[in-house]
Amino acid sequence: MSGDGSKRLPEGHYFVDTITESQIPELMVLYAKEFWTHQRTIDKVKIMLQNTDVVLGLIDPEGHLIAFARALTDYIYRATIYDVIVHPSRRGQGLGKMIVDELLSHPKLKDVEQFVLFCLPDMMPFYEDFGFQHSTKLQLMMYYPNKPESN
Ligand SMILES: CC(C)(COP(=O)(O)OP(=O)(O)OC[C@H]1O[C@@H](n2cnc3c(N)ncnc32)[C@H](O)[C@@H]1OP(=O)(O)O)[C@@H](O)C(=O)NCCC(=O)NCCS
Questions:
Q1: CB under 8 Å to 61, separation ≥6 — which residues?
Q2: What CA–CA distance (Å, rounded) separates 141 from 120?
Q3: pTM of whole model > 0.90?
Q4: Higher per-residue pLDDT: 8 or 120
Q5: Label partner for 121 (CA 20 to 30 A): which of 35, 84, 113, 130?
Q6: Average pLDDT, stretch 35-49?
Q7: Which of 9, 36, 40, 97 to mutate to test the pocket of ligand 1 (most atoms within 8 A of CB)?
Q8: What's the gap in Å between 84 CA and the centre of ligand 1?
Q9: Measuring CA to CA, which residue among 63, 80, 81, 71 is closest to residue 25?
């Protein structure tokens, strides 16, 4: 699978829209290093992958998963982007920009009115580069901890 973002990919790299059984441990490696994903378990991650509307993986020439991003969506009003992660050894090479570009230009998401995501303030410049805007309305994210271990 490929879209606009793949045009600038380094040689031998390509996007996939499913994470194979053998790539799931590599996704767990990406998840293990980030504060909001490090507690995730492989059993629940498999359920998440089965039920995520749009999954994107970036694969290197050796077949390893080196970046990941995903979106949940109604395909018309909103798509919420989650888990944008590039392997630490491959950061600063433009791959984060490419995977977000690929998600924003994904054919399945072409009719979506608005993409939404949550990020820490220091990530704002990264997303503003794509055209994301910080909502100036006084809105707070509220959450209901349906399961005690939820994050
Ligand atoms: C954020 C992340 C995905 C960026 O991936 P990356 O491959 O290193 O980013 P790129 O090389 O494509 O950088 C693109 C641009 O964003 C900038 N940028 C990268 N990381 C940034 C950060 N943490 N804060 C602000 N700007 C950042 C780069 O300087 C670059 O700017 P330039 O085009 O002017 O040179 C990566 O650092 C990562 O996986 N971080 C840990 C997980 C995370 O925090 N994800 C975001 C959750 S909201």
A1: 11, 12, 13
A2: 13
A3: yes
A4: 120
A5: 113
A6: 97
A7: 97
A8: 9
A9: 63
Q: Is the CB of 34 under 6 A from ligand 1?
A: yes
Q: What is the C-alpha to C-alpha distance for residues 19 and 49, in angstroms, rounded to an integer?
A: 8
Using one digit for the tens of pLDDT, what is the confidence trace for 65-119? 999 999 999 999 999 999 999 999 999 999 999 999 999 999 999 999 999 999 9
The β-bridge partners of 53 are: none
Reduce the DSSP state of residue 53 to 3 states and report it. coil
Instruction: Give the catalytic positions in this structure.
Output: 127
d(CA 151, CA 31): 13
Structure tokens at 78: 């909103």
pLDDT surpassing 80 at residue 44: yes
Say how far apart CA 88 and CA 90 lie, in whole Å: 5
